[in-house]
Write a structure and sequence with these properties.
The protein is α/β, with parallel strands linked by helices and 556 residues long. A hairpin with a 2-residue loop joins strand 21 and strand 22.
């Protein structure tokens, strides 16, 4: 296997990821705990660079733990004197997977979901001067919990596991009464803001103060500017409650399904819109789950926009909030997947469905009650974490049957929690009844539409592979869905796929298409970028002209 660093990875120095990690609830004071920690596993002690997992190059460890191995992190910190008298919150962006946190030898928190953040109020555990923080983690890849695309015997579409701390660790001082969470709902000319943890205060918006009553305020916006990828306008505001002050933002946009010329269409801001997208796995050659710098997200987004794309399907992974903020401000729609749990069986979940052979009733699949409850809890947590981001326009519940159970029940549960977005209940196959779209995956056959009278979504297709010498993770065993011998044939075949197969489907009902994929990932060489992001296999002048043609075909 080649060791591939991104340019940012080679330039990394000092404390990584020193950017405020929660863009939609910003306070002035915080303390980043990223950087070198003491690290012990399998009897060896060495430093590790947080927030990079030990399997990654950027961690400085670059060695996978054996299954079930306990990882022990330790560091010492001292609070700024100005924080004295305030409550202190300890935040973890994400830790994979089963986690126990100790502060000065006393338990502060336990957590089991490797993709969602957690917080502990550690005020009562702190001392004057130096404090010791210890984090004990076991990534057992227990399939009762969300596990995504991690697999010990990685290869093909399965990737190297990511153990331990993989997002920012940070401290934050707050007053006794403080805003714990913001919940924002918007329409075409209004926004409703709810603040959990406080009941009174004010919101400053467009130069005026609006009172917060029972933790809620409704704002009307005159001459509203609606958010879309072509004009990603954000409205900032400041909320003050007692001694607490937070900054945030919202955007105005609407999502709806309308029948246009007898065809069901997905509409953005009341108009049919073609969701021209890419599958985004969120893996990096040197940091695995975590890029070397948060600026990497903006580079990927901007590069894909230059190619004409307006949508990323965030595939089986939840990113740090920086990614979603960059999509909000730069104008990139996100189709957000829930992270799968439950077991995967190749013949049942991939082999037979690829041939068109599959069952239609999913009531008896993934029957373990604890696994089901864990999936629901993770789905609820994902929506609570990300629902304020205007870039997210669609939730995907199940992908290709991985861990799927009772998809209709999951749809109605999610719909009750978020009535504003589109929902793709079963991306690929094992379709049931309740879904806002008819969602297909097609790799080895001619592209086609589904049979249901719903908006049509091609939620995965393509996957054309082009190896780039010196930029391949595993040049001896490349993986892709159609091999191209050189860049010229890659560009020619990709354009032909869009022009001859995809474009004719748009006028017949296709509302969006997600090509596989943004970048190569380990064995997979079907990206538009190499795994190290050093090589762009496709240039804007070779492809960007297709975007307006897709939108125009939808409007005919």
């Amino acid at each position: 296997m080649q060791q591939l660093y991104t340019k940012a990875g080679r330039e990394l120095n000092g404390v990584p990821w020193q950017r405020y990690p929660r863009p939609q609830l910003v306070r002035e004071d915080w303390l980043c705990l990223n950087g070198y920690w003491d690290f012990v596993f399998e009897g060896r002690e060495q430093p590790i660079r947080v927030p990079f997992c030990p399997e990654s190059l950027l961690s400085g460890v670059d060695r996978p733990p054996r299954p079930g191995t306990e990882l022990r992190y330790r560091r010492v910190f001292t609070l700024p004197p100005s924080w004295r008298g305030r409550r202190i919150l300890l935040h973890f962006g994400a830790v994979m997977r089963r986690t126990v946190v100790l502060v000065n030898g006393q338990e502060a928190a336990r957590h089991e979901n490797g993709y969602l953040p957690f917080t502990a109020d550690v005020t009562g555990l702190l001392r004057e001067g130096k404090n010791e923080l210890t984090v004990l983690v076991v990534n057992d890849l227990d399939h009762r919990f969300p596990w995504g695309k991690q697999r010990l015997d990685r290869g093909g579409m399965w990737y190297t596991p990511c153990s331990g701390i993989w997002q920012t660790v940070w401290l934050e001082p707050v007053p006794e009464t403080y805003v714990r969470r913001l919940s924002i709902r918007t329409g075409s000319d209004w926004a409703e803001i709810r603040a959990e943890g406080v009941s009174e205060g004010s919101v400053r918006f467009l130069g005026r103060d609006y009172p917060l009553e029972k933790g809620c305020v409704r704002l009307s916006v005159e001459e509203p500017i609606l958010w879309c990828p072509e004009r990603p306008y954000l409205y900032p505001f400041t909320l003050s409650a007692g001694d607490d002050r937070v900054e945030s933002y919202f955007a105005l946009r609407t999502l709806s399904t309308e029948t246009v010329n007898g065809i069901p269409r997905l509409c953005l801001n009341g108009k049919p819109y073609f969701f021209h997208g890419l599958l985004d796995q969120g893996y990096w050659s040197d940091g695995l789950y975590t890029p070397a710098s948060p600026t990497a997200y903006a580079r990927d987004i901007s590069t894909m926009k230059l190619l004409g794309f307006n949508t990323l399907r965030k595939h089986i992974k939840i990113e740090p909030e920086q990614f979603y903020y960059d999509c909000d401000r730069l104008g990139m729609i996100v189709f957000q997947d829930m992270v799968n749990n439950g077991d995967y069986v190749f013949l049942q979940d991939t082999g037979l469905p690829t041939l068109g052979l599959m069952g239609v009733n999913d009531q008896k699949r993934n029957r373990d009650p604890q696994t089901r409850e864990n999936f629901y809890a993770a789905m609820d947590g994902t929506v609570d974490l990300l629902s304020n981001h205007p870039c997210i326009c669609l939730w995907t519940i199940f992908n290709e049957g991985w861990g799927q159970f009772s998809a209709d029940a999951a749809y109605y549960r999610l719909r009750a929690r978020d009535p504003s977005r589109f929902i793709d209940s079963t991306s690929g196959w094992f379709h049931q009844t309740a879904s806002d779209v008819d969602s297909l995956h097609i790799y080895f056959r001619k592209l086609k539409l589904g049979r249901e009278n719903k908006p049509q979504l091609l939620s995965e297709f393509g996957g054309y592979s082009l190896p780039v010498p010196e930029h391949c993770f595993n040049p001896e065993k490349p993986y892709g869905y159609r091999k191209c011998k050189d860049r010229e044939s890659f560009v020619r075949d990709l354009r032909a796929l869009y022009e001859k197969q995809l474009l004719p489907l748009v006028s017949r009902g296709l509302c969006g298409a997600i090509y596989t994929q943004v970048s190569d990932v380990e064995d997979e060489i079907n990206g538009l970028l190499s795994f190290d992001r050093a090589v762009e296999k496709l240039r804007p002048e070779e492809f960007a002209d297709l975007a307006p043609r897709l939108q125009h075909a939808l409007e005919l």
